[in-house]
């Protein structure tokens, strides 16, 4: 089902989006050499509950994972890219960390992910991966607006990722969002312009380009959740929740 939110609901979605962005910003600043992924998860939990929000993850048990996720944030390090399950691991200098967070506040969900390098080193391959997903996300947002189609967004994202030299995996992509985290329409990270659902004001989309350095193939970790690159190469993922407006799209997952 595709949900169209009324202006009151979109205003609530902005509150949820600002909360997600503020939590991610705080967690990024605390993610330094030696920080344990389980501490990041507990900090996320505390900030979600403190804000009176609820986690979209902790009880989530979709077909693509094994049982309830059981955690409050996805933490994906280096070759891990999607659905990274927090575990007992202390971050090292040069690690590429993705934090992916979705929460619900007053009945409306928002979803965002950031990738960044821990510590002081700047491995060029990691910088390029992050840069490509951020530019693809910006291109996807720029292609979104009333009257545009899902295929226009997919094409914009895929063009940037492809031009940066990456293969694109089509098993996981963006999605509609609203009263729940994962809704129709699916937003592939590659596609043909002019195809698919026509965007309308009040539609919320989570756009999430992600790439792996030298493959498009994923493998599932022994934890039953974490998705890693099949070759062990590094990966990156960037995500915002946006709202289609009367004349374009608003990014909801920005700090206020
Ligand atoms: N937030 C992820 C997405 O971008 C979904 C994570 S599902 C989880 O769609 F259960 F792993 F947390
Ligand atoms: Co998402």
UniProtKB/TrEMBL annotation:
rRNA-binding recorded as keyword: no
Annotated SUPFAM superfamilies: Creatinase/aminopeptidase (SSF55920)
Reactions accelerated catalytically: Release of N-terminal amino acids, preferentially methionine, from peptides and arylamides
InterPro entries, alphabetized: Creatinase/aminopeptidase-like, Pept_M24, Pept_M24_MAP, Pept_M24A_MAP1
One Pfam match: Peptidase_M24
Binding, a divalent metal cation 1: 100, 111, 239
Enzyme Commission code: 3.4.11.18
Entry GO MF terms: initiator methionyl aminopeptidase activity
Residues of the Peptidase M24 domain: 14-245
Cofactor note: Binds 2 divalent metal cations per subunit. Has a high-affinity and a low affinity metal-binding site. The true nature of the physiological cofactor is under debate. The enzyme is active with cobalt, zinc, manganese or divalent iron ions. Most likely, methionine aminopeptidases function as mononuclear Fe(2+)-metalloproteases under physiological conditions, and the catalytically relevant metal-binding site has been assigned to the histidine-containing high-affinity site.
Cofactor: Co(2+); Zn(2+); Mn(2+); Fe(2+)
Residues annotated to bind a divalent metal cation 2: 111, 175, 208, 239
Enzyme class: hydrolase
UniProt keywords, alphabetically: Aminopeptidase, Hydrolase, Metal-binding, Protease
Entry binding sites for substrate: 83, 182
NCBIfam families: met_pdase_I
HAMAP family for this protein: MetAP_1 (MF_01974)
Subunit and interaction comment: Monomer.
Reported function: Removes the N-terminal methionine from nascent proteins. The N-terminal methionine is often cleaved when the second residue in the primary sequence is small and uncharged (Met-Ala-, Cys, Gly, Pro, Ser, Thr, or Val). Requires deformylation of the N(alpha)-formylated initiator methionine before it can be hydrolyzed.
Family: Belongs to the peptidase M24A family. Methionine aminopeptidase type 1 subfamily.
Name recorded for this polypeptide: Methionine aminopeptidase
């Amino acid at each position: 089902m595709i949900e169209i939110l009324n202006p009151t609901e979109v205003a609530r979605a902005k509150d949820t989006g600002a909360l997600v962005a503020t939590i991610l910003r705080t967690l990024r600043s605390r993610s330094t050499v030696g920080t344990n992924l389980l501490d990041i998860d507990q900090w996320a939990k505390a900030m979600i509950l403190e804000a009176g929000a609820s986690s979209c993850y902790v009880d989530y048990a979709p077909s693509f994972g094994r049982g309830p996720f059981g955690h409050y944030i996805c933490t994906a390090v280096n070759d891990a890219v999607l659905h990274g399950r927090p575990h007992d691991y202390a971050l090292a200098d040069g690690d590429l960390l993705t934090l992916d967070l979705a929460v619900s506040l007053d009945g409306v969900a928002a979803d965002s992910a950031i990738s960044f390098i821990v510590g002081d080193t700047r491995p060029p391959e990691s910088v390029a991966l992050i840069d490509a997903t951020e530019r693809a996300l910006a291109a996807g947002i720029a292609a979104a607006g009333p009257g545009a189609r899902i295929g226009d967004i997919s094409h914009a994202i895929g063009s940037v990722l492809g031009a940066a030299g990456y293969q694109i995996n089509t098993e996981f992509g963006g999605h509609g969002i609203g009263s729940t985290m994962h809704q129709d329409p699916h937003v592939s990270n590659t596609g043909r312009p002019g195809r698919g659902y026509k965007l309308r004001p009040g539609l919320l989309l989570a756009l999430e380009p992600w790439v792996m350095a030298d493959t498009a193939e994923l493998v599932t970790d022994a934890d039953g959740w974490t998705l890693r690159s099949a070759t062990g190469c590094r990966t990156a993922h960037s995500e915002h929740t946006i709202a289609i407006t009367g004349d374009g799209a608003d990014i909801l997952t920005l700090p206020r």
